[in-house]
Amino acid sequence: MATKIALIVCLCMLIGVIESHTVMTNIVINNQARTDCLRPTYPDYDANTQMGAQWPISSADFLQNGLTSGNYTCGFLPFANQPAQAKCNVAAGSTVGVSYYHGAYGTEDPVLDQWIARSHKGPFIVYMARSDTGTGNVWFKIYQSGKTQESTNFNNVKWASADTLIENNGRFYFPIPSDLAPGNYLLRTEIIAHHDTRLYGAQPYVRCVELTISGDGSANPSLTGVAIPGTWDENDAGIRYNIYNDFTSPYPFPGPAVYEVGTGPTTEGASMGAAGVQSVVVGLMAFLLMISF
Ligand SMILES: [Cu+2]
Predict the structure, then answer these.
(1) Ligand 1 mean position to 288 CA, how many Å?
(2) Which of 39, 71, 196, 283 has its CA 20 to 30 A from that of 234?
């Protein structure tokens, strides 16, 4: 009996180790943590598939779902293309947070590693798309953070993940562009953990949130957006980056440049700005003057 119990305990610990990565668990808007506008993901642990919510969408030991699969858009299918229970209202220009959870798994520090294991070094990147599905050339990057402290000593180099995330008690904060046209958007968060470069370069942790943006902006950067997947793959320099060998060189972020407020294309047929209305009125008056002579 004692050996049976010992065996069960041992198996549970093994499952814990297998599952020990991280997952985004909520979005913090106006100091309120919301879970209802997150796209679904795996249940915490699925015994049938031996998969869990905390799995990266690809890794050295999970090759079949790479950065060219539909899983890369918002996370594991079929979960991640199911609608969220609700959309979260966010004012353009406001700062939001997202939280991660790991649990006291494995042999690393159970307190400090409750959000993510400290080994999981890499960037944190956020995209948005004015889209319900995230398919097509719709994604634009709104935020990225790579190395947060440079050093020629590996032990003193800090990364957004896991160093800054752990320092911030499991949360990243970033601003929503202030000039976005109001409407429904997907927000896509991605941690790319670079601790395991053996086969596949990286472990991306991806999840999407459904937002309704409010404000009086008119920018629609999705008009010049990129496809995810499809714009880069597992051979991208930012995926292949080796944190142990390359840490003194700049981190080459995958994907496009971060969207700069004020530079975006505006929504076709969107409300005309005051200057636009003025020029139409002036033009019409000139035309009436012309035909009256
Ligand atoms: Cu991991």
Answers:
(1) 69
(2) 39
d(CA 64, CA 49): 14
Per cent of the chain over pLDDT 70 is: 75
What whole-number percentage of the chain has pLDDT above 90? 62
Distance from residue 202's CA to the centre of ligand 1 (Å): 9
Cα(13) to centroid of ligand 1, in Å? 16
Topology of domain 2-278, CATH: Coagulation Factor XIII; Chain A, domain 1 (2.70.50)
151-163 tens-digit pLDDT: 999 999 999 999 9
What residues have a C-beta under 5 A from ligand 1, the ion? 21
Reduce the DSSP state of residue 145 to 3 states and report it.
Answer: strand
What is the Cα–Cα distance from 238 to 244, expressed in whole angstroms?
A: 14
Q: 23 alpha carbon to ligand 1 midpoint, in Å?
A: 10
Confidence category of residue 180, pLDDT binned at 50, 70, 90:
very high
DSSP string, 37-53: TBPP---SEETTTTEET
**8 A C-beta contact, residue 54 and residue 23:** yes
Nearest to 228 by CA among 105, 57, 90: 57
